[in-house]
Amino acid sequence: MRSTKQVKANGHRNIGIDAKPPSGSCTDKNCPWHGTLSVRGRQFVGKVVKLKASRMAIVEWDYPHYLWKYERYERKHSHLSAHNPLCIGTKVGDIVRIAECRPISKTKSFVVIERL
What domains can you pick out in the chain, each with its CATH number? Predict the structure, then answer.
């Protein structure tokens, strides 16, 4: 059964985020563009550092952290697991945008929505 959001004639639906839709298509139900997965909440831009399981990408990004003792910033990084739909098809080293979604598995609560 399809969600209330309809698939348009060009093959993808509007996910409510300013992102470029993928050129390919897929039959993945956990794809925000071609399936029924809705995205909400936080968004990050990061680099794919690992492709572990099928349709799973580890995304890492840097951010500054202030140290009050030394009155300086240090560079820290975070990484998390994200669902990698087949229509986007990222590889290691790609810069991607990920968005929060419902929990897909134990560690995946984000999905890749765009390759930059």
Answer: 39-115 (2.40.50.1000)
